[in-house]
Amino acid sequence: MNTLQQLQEKLNNKTALIGIVGLGYVGLPLLLRYVEAGYRVLGLDIDPDKPEKLHSGQTYIKHISSDAIAAARHGFEATTDFNLAKEADALILCVPTPLDDHREPDLSFVLNTTDSLLPHLRAGQVVSLESTTYPGTTDEELMPRIESTGLKVGEDVALVFSPEREDPGNPNFTTQTIPKVVGGVTPVCLEVGKALYGQVIDKVVPVSSTRAAEMTKLLENIHRAVNIGLVNEMKIVADKMGIDIHEVIRAAATKPFGFVPYYPGPGLGGHCIPIDPFYLTWKAREYGINTRFIELAGDVNSSMPNWVVNKVADALNDHCKSVKGSKILVLGIAYKKNIDDMRESPAVELMELLREKGADIAYSDPYLPTFPKMREHHFDLASVPIKPETLENYDCVLVATNHDVFDYDLIKRHSQLIVDSRGVYLDPAENIVKA
Predict the structure, then answer these.
(1) Given 178, 207, 236, which residue is the final one in a domain?
(2) Are 238 and 296 members of one domain?
(3) What residue numbers bound the domain in which 18 lies?
(4) Predicted structure pTM score
(5) How far does Cα 278 stand from its chain's mean position?
(6) pLDDT tens per residue across span 185-194
(7) Residue 114: which H helix or E strand, with range?
């Protein structure tokens, strides 16, 4: 039995030590799932606060309970000591892949993490990249780095790409129940990848290569970005015609075939949909291809915050007020409802645009009691409680993120003006403007 066959057997019989590198929205649920399935798990992160909180049974992600972490405590070790990576049989990389200042792929987290692991790689390990990226990253960037250590991919170590499919806050799907796409650099790598995920995920979906797996993830998110772009454009047309686009979507969704409802909003948010299309458009240029359809959808979606701000300005103007000097309460600042994730949140861009126009900005979001420190956005604010006397004090309430915990009836009764960018108010009212 050769080295990778032995690794496969350890993965299948759950004697392998699983290393999760990056303990955020992707890595932490994966760590908990491996512990639940009976594996020993090593969690690695550069942020010392995360291991400290995990070891004390505390969560730092809203939709993951402290009880779940405490229940798993016996099965994992979390640390910032990357020297321990050599003990792991599997190293699963769950690190960010953002865009740089020029809206081009920033692989620094992936490549720096890989480089930090190189001194600790050994024969009999599998490396799996889960971070969304352009086709070719695994075999063009990771494989040469790994083989620079003298290890041979497909013989000494296995290398796979298996894109994350987490949907934070979605109660209908878990890490275990979401099918897992896996592609290997070689057929042997693929078999190891299937063993890596086969005991913890209900359905593993093998594909022919890491590039096919990388493209699969991009297609999933570009599909959403393009369809959201379409419905955002239709929202603008419907608005000009005096038609409620949300009513139209609800009616169209009654068709039992050939239609999937997508909903407009104030812009795209999250770590995937606003970013992932640019990974493909950038790579496509290497092949002389201009991805016009994808880029057009991106243009439409990126224009939405400005469109919503103009709707706020028009609504205030109709009440004989200007944006400058108006007190505006932004309702919800997470990128989507019922979570505490601020990544690429369109609400923050709305806040900045309104502040630039001279508005006095406040926000209310029970999941984010104070505005978090962000690299690009700076607000020294704390969440405002939703009370009748509070609402009456604002010139405008802007629904930016439609958390279920908000009392929308109370907000409607006590607000002078509401600009609804999420379609939470189905029936027209004098103090409600759809955006």
Answers:
(1) 207
(2) yes
(3) 3-207
(4) 0.91
(5) 15
(6) 999 999 999 9
(7) helix 108-117
